[in-house]
Amino acid sequence: MTTLTVVIVSYNTREQTLACLDSLVAEAARAPGLEVSAVVVDNGSSDGSAEAVRARHPAVLVIDAGENLGFAAGVNRGAAQATGEYVLLLNPDTTVLPGALVALVDFAQAHPEHGLYGGRTLAADGSLEPSSCWGAPSLWSLLCFATGLSTAFARSRLFDPESLGRWQRDTVREVPVITGCLLLIARFDWNRLGGMDERFFLYGEDADFSLRAAAAGMRPVIVPAATIVHTVGGSTSEAGRPGDRRLGNGRKMSMVMAGKATLLKARWSPARAVVGIALLRAGALTRGLLERAVGRAGGTWGEVWRRRGEWSPGYPAARAALFGTAPVASARAAGRPLVIEAEPAFRTEHANPYTARLYRSMSELGMTVRDLSYWRLATAHVDVVHLHWPELTFLSGDRSWRVVTRLVLFFGALRVARRRGTRVVWTVHNVVDHEQRSTPALRARLRRLLTANVDGILSLSASGVEAARRGYPELEHTPAFVTPHGHYRADYDFSASRTEARARLDLDRDGLVAASIGQLRPYKNVPHLLEVFRGLDPDARLAIAGRPSSDEERDAITDAAAGDPRIVLELAFQPAQRVADWLRASDLVVLPYRAIENSGSAILALSANRPVLVPRIGAMGELAELVGPAWVRTYDGEFDAAALAGALAWARDEPRPEVADLSELEWGAIAAATLDAYRAVLQPHTAETKERRWVPVVE
């Protein structure tokens, strides 16, 4: 099932938005292989648009911006709440025709090399409405505009090149610019490009986005089978003043010119942009004189010429003059990479590559990620601080003064950084830490400081979000997101066969081998595993490999294994290749946790294509559903001989493919989902965006 999130930005277009959503719901009902959700960002409408959408389409997420953010900022606000594999921008003044969404998504899946996809737009009478795509501006196209040639020879490939000639948009064709009335992109690529440039208020932002996409290696393309009806200008009908259509058209065209001027400044060199803007002004003058010559003094272009001083600087300066509102303070240039300080990011890679793998994938999306530095947090720009195991970070060690120093330094630096807009995200790996660190008073102090400053929580599973809410009631209304734990296939060499791995480890070539690998801590219940194993099949073997977390744990394991030659103990740190060999040599990985929410050890075993036995607690049930019953076996209640014996027989007899399907645990998609969460947290919160969830428009 392919998932798609449609983002619609509305401004005083209640009836059109409702009709657009009606057509969208009808199309979603006709597309059984496509699950569609929708987000409507209402830019401070005064016509009751938000309330009307909620009433007619309760499954649609409505974000009431409270003010007119402009198209780019509105789209970014909506896309930050997207959960689909693909994001589709759709104007409210459009009607989705049968088959359009399926055709567009199917083409995107068949031709991912294009990256950016548009369709064909028709007028209400069925004639071509060519605004689904345009050519890019050039000095030649602007010279033709300045001299009037593009009007005299409209749709000429030579004199009106931005119109793309007389092409009917009826063939698959790569184009320079796809407009925002119908624009499809994979959510991963949306995040990679950084969304739309919020300096654009209205017009030009989609051209800038398309040109940035092309610069990033995409090849924007039109898919004619994806056809919609578009009432051009319907979504901006309120741009003018009531009762004065000519003045409204003049102001609206001035906004178009402001968008063009902004585009030239953003994409061209300063000197070239100056020439380009001069040609835009000349074109406005030429058309204004023509209007005067035919007795239309004071028409659209005369108004544009008189307002040249307002639109020529481009946005955001042109916004106040043309629309009467100040630029949004948070408006940002798209493409600027987010700066993330993570604790930890890369420094613990030798012990657990989880965070390093996550942040390398985020770096590939263009983000700047560093290990947390209190100094940088206090003195430099930081968008997001991402914490993983705060008790381990701040409470480790047996000297209270060091713990207090860490808390003072971090939260002091954070207080300074928050004034610059820094946000805090916490991945709640376990609601209760496996070991109690420091004193009860300092643990309580950390909890108060942490929960007072967290702007978003992440969990590796849906059950983890629920557990975090229960364990930290203070975070009940904090935005929450699910970002799974990725696999480890790129971090270990799992190429050895079972026979080769056993030869390296001096294990018998034949016979069933169960294993428990990794750091040996009390919650992993290894001594009990040994006791249970001793009463089982004399032909099976059990390998325990890893460093015990304490002398007491080492003694408990050694005592439980004493006198049984079937048990192999290697109680020491295991290098990566040794870990890989133990896993490849085993037939079953046994993880009889006393308590657990998420298990990196289980995912490590699955990465080595080895079946796993885990208790049905925390997110283990979700893992079993995700990977399948051939790879994850769960048990209820206490771990006992029946659970282990059944799992050994299952590991031996259950047919399974050679490779576990971990496609849902790819790091690229997880990094994109994490970046989605960052961007959502960086947006101002509304009641509708407190918790992200997938709601299809058709159940």
Automatic annotation (TrEMBL):
Q: Which Gene3D superfamilies has this protein been placed in?
A: Glycogen Phosphorylase B, Spore Coat Polysaccharide Biosynthesis Protein SpsA, Chain A
Q: Where is the Glycosyltransferase 2-like domain?
A: 5-128
Q: Which residues form the Glycosyl transferase family domain?
A: 498-623
Q: Which GO terms describe its molecular function?
A: glycosyltransferase activity
Pfam families with a match to the protein in the record: Glycos_transf_1, Glycos_transf_2
Record keywords, A-Z: Transferase
Question: Matching CDD domains, A to Z?
Answer: GT_2_like_c (cd04186)
* Top-level taxon of origin: Bacteria
PANTHER family for the chain? RHAMNOSYLTRANSFERASE WBBL
Record-given protein name: Glycosyltransferase
